[in-house]
Amino acid sequence: MEKLLTRLLLIEDDEEDYLLLKRHLAKIPNTRYEIDWTTDYNAGLDRMLSTEHDICMLDYRLGAHNGIELIRNARSQHYAKPIILLTGASEYEIDIQALQAGADDYISKTQLQSELLYRVIRYAIERKKAELEREKLLREQIESKELEQRRNEFISIVTHELKTPLTSLKAYAQLLRRRFEKLGDEQLTRQAMRMDSQINKLTGLIDDLLDVTRIEGGKLKFYEEFYDFDALVNDIIEEIQPTTDKVTLIREGSVDAAIWGDRERTGQVITNFLSNAIKYAPEGERVIIRTCVDDQNVTLCVQDFGPGIPKEEQENLFTPFYRIEQPSRGAIPGMGLGLYISAEIIQRQNGRIWVESEEGHGSTFCFSLPLHRAPSIPEAAITEA
Ligand code: ADP
């Protein structure tokens, strides 16, 4: 079997000690040590910083300098290889100093023997690798957090800026519609209505972006109250049905209960389920909204008869900006935020959200909310994440 190669940089001013170390290392059965030996501080530092090696071993005594100074100096210049300090018989108390300066281990020259050397060198190399890997991971996490924070700040500024002109645009569109209606011009009235509904879509997209920045900044507010669940479902169906003439929304079941939570936010989830069903399954012709209740939960499911969703995609749907890319589905606009926001809304109310689907057999999106969630503060309460 080929021996493993370890390249060792040795900074040691005593030739006897170098030869002794070399002899011990030569006895190790499964590793070949290639030793690059140098005797003084400056040459040592130079080699540490400029040559390829796996580990550095250095003597505590290096002429006018000492090994600890060298370790400190090298580490301050970002030297990242493992370092083992070799100490003499009388240098007991420098081990901690060496570790503080940046050494990974030390060996007393009086204890040199092959097995110990093999273990100490191997451990130092592996520990350093693991340490560098951890540091890299941590750095990447911090960088991605910073990036995410900057992205959220950016989205937050842009969306706020977009909202103001959009609000006045909406007011003008409604004004025009009323004027055209009064004038009895049906075509212009229809056009103004279309303009208004496009503005609503744009407002919806901007609101989704704002919600995402709020969720990620822990600032999504909840206004909670007791509300009639059935009435909410009916209101939303009434609102959504006129937006499609291809799909019929069919209501099944009833809840007959008032539940505690944020009515508007829960409505947002139902709207999202329904508009997705219409958007992604228009050939299905009907969409069923099923509600039921047991002694613990209220459950609402929206079933469509569209293309369905492959199993491997299902758990990703609730993550931000996730969309299924399938050329066969055509270009359906969206940002992949609705289900992510929905999941947050349901989970914040101690509920559960899920999807049941098989490719080619439609999809059913559901959530359940606890029936007896006690209000934290009576009357309208505001909770923040
Ligand atoms: P958006 O619709 O803006 O892309 P969503 O978060 O609401 O964002 O949905 C995420 C993805 O889930 C959609 O892009 C779509 O691929 C898929 N999806 C959602 N609802 C359905 C559905 N009823 N049928 C098929 N695919 C769906």
UniProtKB/TrEMBL annotation:
Where does this protein have coiled-coil stretches?
120-150
What GO terms are given for molecular function?
Answer: phosphorelay sensor kinase activity
Matching entries from Pfam families are given as: HATPase_c (PF02518), HisKA (PF00512), Response_reg (PF00072)
- Response regulatory domain residues: 7-124
Catalyses: ATP + protein L-histidine = ADP + protein N-phospho-L-histidine
Keyword tags: Coiled coil, Kinase, Membrane, Phosphoprotein, Transferase, Two-component regulatory system
**Ranges where the Histidine kinase domain occurs:** 157-373
EC number from the UniProt entry? 2.7.13.3
Database matches in InterPro entries: CheY-like_superfamily, HATPase_C_sf, HATPase_dom, His_kinase_dom, HisK_dim/P_dom, HisK_dim/P_sf, Sig_transdc_His_kin-like_C, Sig_transdc_resp-reg_receiver
The broad enzyme category this protein falls into is: transferase
| 4-aspartylphosphate sites (modified residues) | 59
The record's listing under PANTHER family reads: HYBRID SIGNAL TRANSDUCTION HISTIDINE KINASE C (PTHR43547:SF2), TWO-COMPONENT HISTIDINE KINASE (PTHR43547)
Could you tell me what this protein is called? histidine kinase
Task: Say which species the protein is native to.
Answer: Thermosporothrix hazakensis
